[in-house]
Hints:
By secondary structure, the chain is mainly alpha-helical. Among the domains are: 7-179, Rossmann fold; 419-497, Serine Threonine Protein Phosphatase 5, Tetratricopeptide repeat (Alpha Horseshoe); 718-791, no CATH class; 795-855, Arc Repressor Mutant, subunit A (Orthogonal Bundle), CATH 1.10.10.10. The chain is built from 47 helices and 8 strands. The strands form 2 sheets. Strands 2-3-4-1-5 form a 5-stranded parallel beta sheet. Strand 7 (280-283) and strand 8 form a beta hairpin. Helix 4 (81-92) runs antiparallel to helix 5 and helix 41 runs antiparallel to helix 42 (770-783). The mean pLDDT is 87. Pfam families: AAA_16, GerE. GO terms for molecular function: adenylate cyclase activity; ATP binding; DNA binding. InterPro entries: AAA_16, P-loop_NTPase, Sig_transdc_resp-reg_C-effctor, Tscrpt_reg_LuxR_C, WH-like_DNA-bd_sf.
Amino acid sequence: MDLLEREAVLQDLTGHLKVAVSGPGRLALVRGETGIGKTAVVHRLARLADPHVRVLTGACDPLATPRPLGPFTDLAPNLGAAARTALTGALAGTCRPDELFDCLLADLSSYPSLLVVEDVHWADEATMDLLRHLTRRLPGVPALVVVTYRDDEIGRTHDLTALLGTLAGYPWVHRHDLLPLSRRAVAQLAAGHTVDAEQVYRLSAGNPFIVTSVLAAPAEPVPATVREAVAGRLAGLSASARRVVDVLAVLGRRVPLPLLAGILPAPEEALDEAVACGIVRTEGRTAEFRQELTRRAVLEAVPAAHRLRVHRQALALMRSGPVAADDLAPLADHSEGAEDAAAVLEYAPAAAAHAAASGAHREAAAQYARALRYADDLPAEQQTSLLEGHSQACLLSSRLDEGVASRRTAVRLRRALGDRLREGEDLRWLSCWLWSAGRTAEARQTGLEAVRVLERLRPSRELAWAYLNLCQLACHEQEGVAVAAAYAEKAAALGERFGDAGVAGQAHFHAAAARLLSEGAGWEDCERAVSSAMARDLPVDAGFLALTLCRIGALQHDADRTTAAASRAEAYFLDHDLLPHLLCARAWDSWGLLNRGLWTEAADTAQQVVSHPGSPPVGEALALTVLGLVRARQGRDQVWPLLDRAAGLADSDCLLDTGLGWEARVEAAWLAGDHELVQTEARNGLAALAERTHPWLSGPLACWIRRAGGTPPQVPAAEPYALELTGDWAGAAARWDGLGCPHDAALARLSGDAAALREALAAFEALDARPAVARTRAVMRARGVRPIRRGARAATRANPYGLTNREVDVLKLLNEGLSDAEIAVRLYITPKTAGHHVGAVLAKLGVHTRHDAARKLHPSEP
Length: 862
């Protein structure tokens, strides 16, 4: 497995080793919290060491009575005879410590060495004395000594603290901190797992041990490995320190010290012991667990009666003084833990509203759900308000099913209350999110119902937004400029009447979007509208507009515009914690990457969406389609299961509205050589488009019918498709080249002359589009085009997986567990180039992980 975000430390350590083995020697201190990956780093360093460097590795153990000279006993078999004899004598008491020190120093002086002493915080006094003696004399020794320790387990009185103080003045001693992984690295590790990477990051705080434990057992609230590790660390605590840890676990991850003192008087000494254990830390006037999952592991073991008592004490203490906004969430938690329903209904809705206003939509959804568990006896108006808040928070945190269910209930309650205005507003929101859930037909019906309800009332802002919703659906469904423009005009008039600039901006955007889809003009107007919504800090509105712009760019195969729109959207959604929007933006980005010929990157991005448990059905369907199409173009299996799964996530209209569904199925059939299926799928798609006008959807289907030998019907077609349908393959290819779509350009050239066919063949080979390469060669043979390039070199053809010599080298290094950066060093290439080679190897081997690729070298291993 890659050691993510450890490249800089490894580079420093390998640099120290290179200098040290030539003299003068050096000492490297590698420190970090428990589970941060110190052992993995030093093991990788040992594997990267030159063969002429002797590697000596020993470790200290967490024993009640440490082994005398434990780490040096471990490495003794690799020492010279004199050093081994001295070590045996020291343990037997027949050799003085200074004699042992001198023998070991002489042994290290005789051979370039890497000496690793792990977990020195558990070392005995003799080991620490030996390290003092050795470090002072290192400049005359051709060795790098690497010492690892947990900096979260040493306090002011720890023996190691004194040793570190002694080493502080030596210029040949270097310190290296291993920091928790970033969100990006955790997301990279989580790729391919059906987990929420952000949730994994929050639970683990980036601790690699906890991240890998969660990924290995995603269904367990607390993985057994974490539970056992926490229990082991707590086993040595005194009863008073364990009480402190238990109370902190009940109170929450970050606890004000005055609150802790109110429940456990004079907890300072016990808290210091808990901090020295490394499981909690203090910062200013607060105490907190280092990782949330660690807190949960502790909480699991706290008896229910004790939890109830602590919650009640905390609730009483916090209510006795002023309540700040940041106190609302813990008050709601303690209210439920104290089984005080009235307090829950007092604090949970307020905490939810505060979280929503802060953009913390997941927290808001959880607090609304907490309030709804106690809301059965509330008046219907209050219940409905909680349902509406819960629905919006769920929808913004990618919990679509829960959000839609709450909004449906809110619609029924508003209708029963006779509140038609709020009923119409709830119907409008329900329509918006039904489309995201892939239920486009129901979204359209619900949107029309919202307008019918609101049109019976006086003109209102709510009616303006309902018109905008229909305008947006008209753009999605390609109902034409006239329909979208009519709704936009009605919305703009009401927006002007009520002074709502947001309505006017959205109306302008949707009118421009409809024009852009049908006429190809209006991109700049759409971009300005998106920028305006983002500048006014209207995250939900800006989100809908930004995603629509991504979709238009992808539909029109405009690589640069798609990339720019997706990049801006992703950055905005990350800043505003809009998870469903973020995942949809990544899905559109994967399509843009596909169009640009970056298939490995497209598949990786699409896999992130598919693997995320919170992916909206529309985004997941699009990502699955991209994955299926990449596999089809590369000649791999399991294409149709992916395409069928995508089709099953949403209704048939959604396949048209996202744009890629029908075209992908037709292309997959063509690549498989099934021309009959090409005709069937393409004509089914065109039949579904009969009531719509969208040249970017009907055009490609007509072209596929023509490529499969059929006669395409007269349908609207965008420029590059229209050129190909009229026989102007050169014009079509040039247009695709201008849009940055090499695969589409190569397809157009299949209708061209000998030079065009050769150019198409070269493009397909560069893309590793094996089925298309075979089809092109067949066309060239049929037309008598000679000579035909024979493709891969002999070495590549001889490899059972079609790997080049360089790719075989990369596979061997993957088997060694090296990262892209380390592969780059070994092969004298850039990390980016190494990454491309790794992607090519994974694709040709038909695997998704580096581990699975390495196993191809040893197929008999389990």
